[in-house]
Write a structure and sequence with these properties.
By secondary structure, the protein is α+β, with helices and mostly antiparallel strands. The protein is 46% helix and 20% strand. Bound molecules: zinc ion.
């Protein structure tokens, strides 16, 4: 179990150190800002949605390792997916980090599985979920800020 924990830690830190799709998406047609006041995490999610498919996804922001790693994995996992599929991934991810006994489709989640450990830390759940709430706001075209409060 500790080896698995070490592996998870390594993947998480790697995403934090070299976040994927950490850029401003110049041709984004959806974007939203998210803020987690408990931790100070701030994020902007950019999407280019074409015919209900997330053709491109990127983010910018400052925050803790968990918020950054989660955002990095989010952009990877929703890229090229339909909006409906992205929402399905979010539902699975939300179950993973809030309910240790949830029946989760790990194939759907990929690297996101490494964040399962946050389910034991309620304050960190908000860090992990911030990018996802921001993604939802962007998809829905709200354009304004969301917070985890
Ligand atoms: Zn945080």
């Amino acid at each position: 179990m500790s080896n698995l924990h070490d592996l998870y830690q390594e993947i998480l830190l790697e995403h934090n150190n070299r976040p994927r799709n950490f850029r401003i998406l110049e041709d984004a047609n959806r974007q939203a800002d998210g803020y987690n006041p408990l931790c100070g995490d701030q994020i902007t999610v950019y999407l280019r949605v074409e015919d209900d498919v997330i053709a491109d996804a990127a983010f910018q922001g400052v925050g803790c390792a968990i918020s950054r790693a989660s955002a990095s994995m989010l952009t990877q996992s929703v890229m090229g997916q339909t909006v409906a599929k992205a929402e399905e991934i979010f539902e699975g991810f939300h179950a993973l980090i809030t309910d240790p006994d949830a029946d989760v489709d790990f194939d759907l989640l990929g690297d996101l599985e490494v964040l399962s450990g946050v389910s034991a830390y309620p304050t960190r759940i908000k860090c992990a979920v911030l990018a996802w709430h921001t993604l939802t706001a962007a998809i829905e075209g709200k354009g304004d800020s969301v917070t985890t409060e």
